[in-house]
Amino acid sequence: MSAQGTQQRVEDDRFVRDAPSIPGLRFRRFAGVADVPGIVEVGQAANRADSFDYVPTIAELTNELEHPDGFVAEEDILIAEIDGRIVGYGRVQHVVRADEDTFELFGDVHPDHRRKRIGRSILHAGERRARERASALTRRRTVRFASWGVDSALGHGAIMRAEGYQPVRFFFEMIKRDLGTPALRPLPDGLEIRPMTRATLRQAFDAENEAFRDHWGYKEWTEAMFGEISSAPHLDLDLWRVAWAGDEVAGVVATHVFEEENAALGLSRGWLERISVRRPWRGRGVATALILAACAGLRERGIAEAALGVDADNPSGALGLYESLGFVQDSRATSWRKPLEAGASD
Questions:
Q1: Residue 268: which of 296, 304, 241 has the closest Cα?
Q2: 249 phi and psi, to 5 degrees?
Q3: 115, 322, 326, 331: most buried by Cβ count inside 10 Å?
Q4: Which pLDDT does position 5 carry in this prediction?
Q5: What residues pair up with 192 in beta bridges, in sequence order?
Q6: pTM of full prediction above 0.90
Q7: How many whole angstroms from its chain centre is CA 302?
Q8: How far apart are CA 96 and CA 15, in angstroms?
Q9: What angle do CA 216, 219, 220 make, to 5 degrees?
């Protein structure tokens, strides 16, 4: 194919240098809210094909784009389309984790257009964009490419290995399939569960941030992250369970029910997210009490099962705790890393 033809397909995008020869294919930058439905459609189709029980929605992606954290949508999101229909996308996000600069690469290709090297072109373009951003960092730390994917997405794992990424950490999705009548556990003396409100959301957020500093791959929570959480379309603070020690937050379970996802998957599931206990109250049964209280809250809403995610190597013993409470491993995901200097294929 001529250089001129390649230039037309990528619309002068300086990062796409290996576009496959597919009639009607072109790569371009994110063009705004008009692209959101197409991105969501690709994500939903990809997750169905990969047996990944996550259904992104237009409202959720719109909320994320309204609170960008580590990316500029018009510069860091790449769109692949064929005859005007979005068939793939990629995003580059800068995150400082454990004092390392990571450029996290996310993306999907519609199942109807996989195995055509579209995904590799998106990945290579993301790496080039990450290198450009890394060159502008004022403080130079260890810099790495990073990615994450469920193990059932076999194509993602194959591309990661072929492109020189190494698995560095594993995560489990766990499900408690029968909430039954959970036996509640009392909190330690001096602690109590009180209703969560908008007025206390910031305090809970700050407490979660502090608690997660001890976790692998920690990133400092930002104002953008607080904005995204506080304006999330599925936010229902009545489901959250927060343990208070006087005026201090001791622990948090942020509980969510994603109604559109449940409808699409035929499930009745609630999610226990960001389970955290601050250091002074660890080892005293706070997490157990909060988890059981959260499960009871879901049951009262008529929800049949609860799910959560856990780091397989969590040093606090979270995996064993969840298993003792009736959660079983349902799927696994892998976190991948590659040194920035390793480069991308042209």
A1: 304
A2: -85, 125
A3: 322
A4: 42
A5: 244
A6: yes
A7: 27
A8: 23
A9: 135
Q: Residue 238 corresponds to which tokens in the numbers above?
A: 């009545």
**Could you give the CA distance from residue 219 to residue 266 in angstroms, rounded to a whole number?**
34
- The CA distance from 253 to 309, in Å, is 12
3-state secondary structure of 166: strand
In order of their start, the domains of the chain are 3-172+335-342 (3.40.630.30), 179-303 (3.40.630.30)
- Return the amino acid letter for 273: E
Q: What's 205-250 look like in SS3?
A: HHHHHHHHHHCCCCCCCCHHHHHHHHCCCCCCHHHCEEEEECCEEE
| Greatest Cα pair distance in the chain | 74
Task: Give start and end residues of each alpha helix (H) in the chain.
Answer: 3-10, 36-49, 58-66, 73-76, 118-135, 154-162, 198-211, 223-230, 259-265, 286-300, 318-324
Distance, CA of 9 to CA of 173 (rounded, Å): 39
Q: By three-state DSSP, how is residue 136 classified? A: coil
Query: Do 123 and 344 form a contact (C-beta atoms < 8 A)?
Result: yes
- In the predicted model, residues of the chain with pLDDT beneath 50 are 1-8, 344-346
